[in-house]
Amino acid sequence: MERDIEPTGRVDEFLPSYANGSTSFAWWGMAWLIATEAALFATVIVSYWYIRFRSGPIWPPDGIAAPELALPLVMSAILWSSSIPVHLADRAIRRGDQRRLRFGLLAGLLLGAAFLSLQFAVEYPSVLDEFTARTNAYGSMFFTLTGLHGLHVLVGLAFSVWVQVRAWRGAFDERRHVSVQNFAMYWHFVDVVWLFVLLTVYVSPHL
Amino acid sequence: MASYAERLELVWHEGTGLSAWAGTVDHKRIGLRYLYTGFVFFVLAGLESTLMRVQLAAPGLEVLSPQTYNELFSMHGVTMMFLVATPILSGFGNYFVPLMIGARDMAFPRLNAFGYWVFLAAGVFLNSAFLVGQAPDDGWFNYLPLASEQFTPTLAIDFYALGLIFIGISTTAGAINFIVTILKLRAPGMTLNRIPIFVWGELAFALTVVFALPVLTVANVFLELERKFGFHFYDADGGGDPVLWQHLFWFFGHPEVYLIVLPALGLVSSIIPTFSRRPMIGYTYIVLAELFIFVISFGVWVHHMFAVGLPTIALGIISAASFMVVIPSGTQIFAWLATMVSGRLVLSTAMHFVLGFLVLFVIGGLTGAMFSAVPFDQATTDSYFVVAHFHYVLAGGAMFPMFAGLYYWGPKMLGHLLDERLGKISFWLMFVGFNLTFFPMHIAGLLGQPRRTYTYASGLGWDLHNLLSTIGVFVLGAGILVTFWNWFRSRAHGEPAGEDPWSGDTLEWTTTSPPPEYNFTTIPTVRSREPAWDQPELIGGAQPPEDGGRPLTDGHTTLATTLADADPQAIVHMPHASPWPLFLTLALMLAFYGVLLSSWMVAAVGAVASAGTLMGWLWPRGETQET
Questions:
Q1: Residue B616: C-alpha distances to residues A21, A138, B164, B580, B609 (Å)
Q2: Please, are residues B208 and B178 in contact by the beta-carbon 8 Å criterion?
Q3: pTM
Q4: Using omega within 30 degrees of 0 as the cis cutoff, is the peptide bond preceding A60 cis?
Q5: Is A51 on the interface with B (CB under 8 A)?
Q6: Which residues 9-28 of A have a C-beta within 8 angstroms of B?
Q7: What architecture does CATH give domain A24-206?
Q8: Domain residues of chain A, as ranges?
Q9: CA B366 to CA B330: how far, in whole Å?
Q10: Tens digit of pLDDT for each residue in B21-39?
Q11: Considering Cα of B181, then B184, then B189, then B194, what sign does the dihedral take?
């Protein structure tokens, strides 16, 4: 059995031997990983706009139609709604609620997988009928930015599976759950980034 | 009952066999590895520049072919920036940040080991380009369209782009580790305004990495997608723009310059008080200046592009921002001068290098301020004047502090004093050689000599300047070799250093030389900005518990403290030695070679192996509080 407090060696002084949230090193590590990832996405998004403004008045160029909006909006609703069960799971384990933790994570996983399936199996094939990443700079930016985000969703799904295996084995309790917090932080980040991807790639060509 | 030290020794000793060698997570061993490996690459890049100087000694020489010359100046720049300056300063940081803040290790010890292995692997990856005769040859900033598939069809640019993406993993991992270490592992009582300035310098460096490095990574990912798969980012025919590369490269590149100089300035700021025998004057202003440099470094990239043909308004704004850099730089210089003037100066070898640095950095800063003026910049762009300037700033501003660091902290790392007489000989050779090499380049540049040309005709008035530079590089090289000789001789035969040969002010001087694996017998409670001067009970790295020391002998642990006030929060169990960081590095290296050679099966195997080794790494073993 793990101890919750340990002696420091000073007379009668004990400190917690577990750490969550901003007490934990891992939480800060994730926060700074997200900061550098945000810089990564910002660079690609700014590059998109740079290419767009260097490209002349017609965007998308070369007779390509502005992207279809309906499906990306449905995908957005699915992706953003996945943050709710993840958030509830994160809240639940702070109270030690194992059932809500497990089902919240599972629901988040299924919604994320649904988003990714729609992107790769439905949206990309229909876009590829019209242009590819090799057609022109517009196509390259389209697939690089959405693909980079998709890759992050994929990593998030792997992360989710990793946390869930441990959640279903009962590894977390109200004192030890920083992995759940870190997963939730990463997942919310990927969802927030999607807003900027959506506005840049799908909405802005209609403006 | 066994003493604290005996109990800690049992818990912290990593052993000696191969598994301990390959798996070590001790920040001091890793720091030394960074230093030694960085200096190997330093010698390599130095030999590259010596060959170039031999070629340029007189007009019309044919020592090197134009192609070889292109490869040498490209690899010299890439190596010095990415495999020498950053890793060596990270090496000092790795070794001394935990010691200066009174911690037992970095926040993420295995990530630390991983950062070193990836640095080594990426260095080998980049330099393996020489073995196949396809070394990067388009300069360290690798402009498009020259670097496109069409104009450089060899693997040279793929080595460059993939190599820089690869080393970026190492630098980013190291930076995040530094930030979390400095925010969360400071000894109790080390409030924000008691953090040693060197540690602030490493923090500013790490923050710059976090926000600047992804830009380089994206630029190189775009480049590889374009070269390998026919995407369009930089080619005008496909709707791209070659100037995008320049923006991305320099948006990273200018912060890169500062992220090299920032820890070097921090190093200077930790040496000056010790050898002035008084606390640093203007501590707060120096810290604010370093943070201001971090911020402003993101607003000056276009001054590398003044000759590109950008809108005048952009030039004006960036010109003004570039002039602003003078303010924080000047603030630090005046604070150092004031500290030295009002103290009792001890002219040790380390202090010689610091004073040499001051002279060179001020000269480089003056020419730097000249480039902020757009017309002057446009007149001298791509001339040897620029080469002279950035060697004064970077080689003067980083190499001299590094050598100062070797002489200042060498005794702590080796346990032996370095020879001061050899050190001063080394300094004078380096200082004279440096100025002989680089000062004439100012004049040759103003006389019109362009950089990156493998030879020149006689009768242009450049002959003498080039000959002097070539003589200078040999004097400089001799000075460097004297220090290496001194290092290895003293390592074997030097006088014992004792805990505190210089009467230093910061915590690293309170523990033994070299420190034990657990750094401090008790994690100290700090009550001063100069704890080693003001708290005599810290002697021996064993502040008694009744004075605030915390032995933490119950496990492989260190202390987590609050971000601003450094109040104790939790006892954190640290991971033990692990081979997985090395395995992950090897898997990644396989993947990078696969992409390089367009062997997608190899790349896929490398990627799958990377995922597998990552699982092996993260698998809960009950050592740490992963949950």
A1: 25, 40, 26, 7, 10
A2: no
A3: 0.97
A4: yes
A5: yes
A6: 9-11, 13, 15-19, 22-26, 28
A7: Up-down Bundle (1.20)
A8: 24-206
A9: 11
A10: 999 999 999 999 999 999 9
A11: positive
State the pLDDT at residue A2: 61
DSSP state of B134: -
Residue A29 amino acid letter: G
Nearest CB partner across the interface for A18, out of B176, B219, B625: B625
Residue pLDDT, tens place only, B431-482: 999 999 999 999 999 999 999 999 999 999 999 999 999 999 999 999 999 9
What is the three-class DSSP state of B496?
A: strand
Give how far A196 is from chain B: nearest CA, Å.
Answer: 17
Which of B179, B545, B546 is nearest residue A32 as measured by Cβ atoms?
B179
Q: Give the C-alpha separation, B270 to B373, whole Å.
A: 33
The closest CB to that of B176, out of A6, A33, A43, belongs to: A33
Helix (H) / strand (E) element for B570: namely strand B568-573
- Residue B18 burial class via C-beta count within 10 angstroms: exposed 0-12, middle 13-18, buried 19 and up: exposed
**Cis status, amide bond into B514, omega within 30 of 0:** yes
Asked if A40 has any chain B CB less than 8 Å from its own CB, the reply is: yes
Task: Report the percentage of chain B scoring pLDDT > 90.
Answer: 96
| ipTM of the complex model | 0.97
- Mind listing the pLDDT tens digit for each residue in B307-342? 999 999 999 999 999 999 999 999 999 999 999 999
Compute the distance between CA of residue B399 and CA of residue B385 in angstroms, rounded to an integer. Answer: 20
8 Å CB contact of A29 and B180? yes
A177 touches chain B (CB under 8 A): yes
What does the pLDDT look like over B138-182, one tens digit per residue?
999 999 999 999 999 999 999 999 999 999 999 999 999 999 999
Binary contact (A23, B569; C-beta < 8 A): yes
User: Among B472, B361, B351, which residue's Cα sits nearest to residue B403?
Assistant: B351
Give SS3 for B573: strand
Q: Do A16 and B248 touch (CB under 8 A)?
A: no
Does the beta carbon of A129 lie under 8 angstroms from any beta carbon of chain B? no
How many residues appear in chain A? 207
